[in-house]
Amino acid sequence: MTPPDHRFLRALRREPVDATPIWIMRQAGRYLPEYRATRARAGSFLALAQTPELACEVTLQPIRRFALDAAILFSDILTVPDAMGLGLHFVEGEGPKFARPLRDAASIRALGVPDPATSLRYVTDAVRLIRHELHGRVPLIGFAGSPWTLACYMIEGEGSASFARAKALALQDPALMHHLLDVLARSVATYLAAQAAAGAQALMLFDTWGGLLTPTMFTEFSLRWLGAVVAQVRAQAPEVPLILFSKGANAHLEGLADTGCDALGLDWTIDIGDARARVGTRVALQGNLDPAVLAATPATIRAQAAAVLDAFGPHPGHVFNLGHGITPDIDPAHVAALVDAVHELSRRG
Amino acid sequence: MTPPDHRFLRALRREPVDATPIWIMRQAGRYLPEYRATRARAGSFLALAQTPELACEVTLQPIRRFALDAAILFSDILTVPDAMGLGLHFVEGEGPKFARPLRDAASIRALGVPDPATSLRYVTDAVRLIRHELHGRVPLIGFAGSPWTLACYMIEGEGSASFARAKALALQDPALMHHLLDVLARSVATYLAAQAAAGAQALMLFDTWGGLLTPTMFTEFSLRWLGAVVAQVRAQAPEVPLILFSKGANAHLEGLADTGCDALGLDWTIDIGDARARVGTRVALQGNLDPAVLAATPATIRAQAAAVLDAFGPHPGHVFNLGHGITPDIDPAHVAALVDAVHELSRRG
Q1: Is B314 inside a domain boundary?
Q2: In A198, A215, B94, B174, which residue has its Cα 20 to 30 A from A256's Cα atom?
Q3: How many domains does chain A have?
């Protein structure tokens, strides 16, 4: 068992730590040659994500290489819509697509909450296996996509620069959009609670497209349902800390903190000290080095890591991370330089 | 001659207007069938932008169709680096590329300020022709890219999600980056002043990638050089109003207003009333309807336009626009609905 006083879990609870914990979004990813080898063996991204043994293997790869303070389940936010029957597949070089996107009210009204014990069993199996294989070395994070973000993909059927179809539905038939978001909130909360029951020791909710909304629409269509997910997860898994990351939504930090989550993820376009001044000690903060810094020299990486640590200051409640996922072009030696710098520079006593 | 009391120019000067003026970023673009026909005739985007008669034709097309309050020169922000010798070309479906990107200090130190009278003559010729063909119907806007944005493209050699090369150079050799930004600021200011001398009645500076920076880097590498361009344009063309648009940089509105520009462009992720409360009457504000709204029904477009007008309130100093460029999928009838709604809903007395 991971001790409950691991520095990652302590930081999420805003308790003092011996050094600032760090993990990296997309740490199990294409910048690692061992990931690319496993991915090639799996044949497809989806086979990798849906085979517990392979998902476990790539989840552990960065933990073996670096002194990271948390593992994160290798999966995809679109597993939930897939389990709802939309038919997820990945087109090489084009990203995710759904065979059956939501194009009418009837298909939205027909959606139900998927049972994690059946259609998402491969995820909870992976969580159990990873927990076993981690041997308590570091805590395991489970995750899901936010209702708004999932709705965007489900309505468009694929990624989009603007998600204009989803926004048009929200503006033209808000009742129908809220029906969809309600089903998604219950699905996501049930899914996150199932990951916690299978062994995930922290949970993260990715609101990838909330930042594309006007303030009014963000409050109504994204934030409201983030709050619903937090409340429902709290009720089902009260002990498991929940991190909320709404990319590009720095204008809404106070509202995000008010959801009752334990921590907020931050992108790099805000000073983490300013963010802390705004949300106080209500939540821990996770972030927020610009991922592009990892393309610079180790000396520059160290200096920029120091700047983030200094901006946060000597308070409890900081989990170091990038402000967005690591990119495939990064030299793994630069990741090692970052992880070591964060631990060395933040060492207490 | 366009009267100097045209409502677009009055709004930029924060003077009362009979109705809120509107123009649309990328109003001369692929959503118009007549644009697609002229583009096909030109053979390439670059031929279209570099042939004054064709650039004039597409600039005028949206003015013929809609009751827009300003025309904007059809051109590209990368004309300046092209004139500096980098070899601009467009690869179908991939966007702009430079044949000779900046990959070492020597190539940066070798750059000079291009003379608008020679290497950018096709632009000033287009401005003169458009002014003549407009017959004073609406004012003409000239534009350029910001020093930081141009540096990003010049260092990467093409578009990028992260511009990690440009950021690494800024962090690792700030003196060299500032040398580049200084040359670019002087080039851009000279270029904008030449457009004004040729007849442009307002100027706009697009800081497309400033919003990808941390607050510290934004201040040092983007904002500082925006201020330099504004000051130099002011000195060379004191009568011509200057609009600054730093996409995704809503956290920095106060600093942007302090540059001494006349107006700030806003994306749609901020309430325009909140923006006005922050910058006061120092600048006019241009924006900020979510471009995705144009994919909704005309009734929804009208309601959302009303929401933006209401958020700004009954003060002088509003130029209506989208928060980003119009997308190629939009029905021109929806643009007409927007333009008419803005004029009708804002009509005074």
Answers
A1: yes
A2: A198
A3: 1
Residue B181 belongs to a domain: yes
Contact A248 B270 (CB under 8 A): no
Tell me what the mean pLDDT of segment A111-121 comes to.
96
CA distance A336 to A216: 42
Percent of chain A at pLDDT exceeding 70: 99
Average pLDDT over residues B313-320: 96
Q: Answer yes or no: is A2 within a domain.
A: no
Decide if pLDDT at A1 tops 80: no
User: CB pairs below 8 Å between A and B: how many?
Assistant: 104
Could you tell me which of B46, B199, B66, B43 has the C-alpha nearest to residue B133? B199
Count helices and strands in chain A by DSSP H and E runs:
16, 9
- What is the rounded CA–CA span in Å between residue A190 and residue A197? 10
Which domain range does residue B287 map to?
7-346
- Its sign, for the CA torsion B120, B124, B130, B133, is negative
* Mean pLDDT value across chain A: 96
Note the pLDDT tens digit of each residue in B100-145.
Answer: 999 999 999 999 999 999 999 999 999 999 999 999 999 999 999 9
Q: Look up tokens 């997820």; give the residue.
A: A88
Rounded-to-5 percentages of helix, strand, coil across chain B: 50, 10, 35
For β-strands A202-207 and A318-319, DSSP reports them as unpaired
A13 is catalytic: no
Residue of higher predicted confidence among B94 and A244: A244
| Count of helices and strands (H, E) across chain B | 16, 9
Cβ separation A268–B214 shorter than 8 A: yes
Of A171, A269, A294, the CB nearest to B214: A269
CB-CB neighbors (< 8 A) of B213 in chain A: 269, 290
Question: Per the CB < 8 Å rule, is B215 touching A165?
Answer: no
State pLDDT tens for residues B265-278.
Answer: 999 999 999 999 99
Separation in Å, CA of B217 to nearest CA in chain A: 10
Active-site residue flag, B153: yes
Distance from CA of B208 to the nearest CA of A (A): 15
A4 pLDDT above the threshold of 90: no
Q: Which residues of A touch B (CB under 8 A)?
A: 161-165, 167-168, 171-172, 211-216, 248, 250-251, 268-271, 274, 290-297, 300, 303-304, 307, 327, 329
On chain B, the residues whose CB falls within 8 A of the CB of A297 are: 168, 172
Within-domain flag for A231: yes
Question: Looking at residue B148, which CATH number applies to its domain?
Answer: 3.20.20.210
